């Protein structure tokens, strides 16, 4: 069964994961967000209970 032989695809999978984690991911994480979140505290919303007509 050729699908059980890991030699053709295992090296490609390992090198692609290493390239992703060691090269591409740090470059992507180094970018700063262009729209930073404000440091405002959220205001609590005033909710009123629903009055059901049949109760």
UniProtKB/TrEMBL annotation:
| Location of this chain's protein in the cell | Mitochondrion membrane
Any GO BP annotation: proton motive force-driven ATP synthesis
Stretches that traverse the bilayer: 6-24
Q: Name one GO molecular function term.
A: proton transmembrane transporter activity
Please name the PANTHER family in this protein's record: ATP SYNTHASE PROTEIN 8
Principal cellular location given in the protein's record: mitochondrion
**Alphabetical keyword list:** ATP synthesis, CF(0), Hydrogen ion transport, Ion transport, Membrane, Mitochondrion, Transmembrane, Transmembrane helix, Transport
Origin species? Sitta himalayensis
Any one GO CC term of this protein is: proton-transporting ATP synthase complex
Q: What is this protein called?
A: ATP synthase complex subunit 8
Q: What family does the database annotate? A: Belongs to the ATPase protein 8 family.
Report how it sits in the membrane.
Single-pass membrane protein
Transport found in the keyword field: yes
């Amino acid at each position: 069964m050729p699908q059980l032989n890991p030699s053709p695809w295992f090296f490609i999978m390992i090198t692609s994961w290493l390239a992703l984690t060691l090269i591409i991911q740090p470059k992507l994480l180094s970018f700063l967000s262009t729209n930073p979140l404000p440091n405002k505290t959220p205001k609590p919303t005033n909710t009123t209970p629903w009055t059901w007509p049949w109760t």
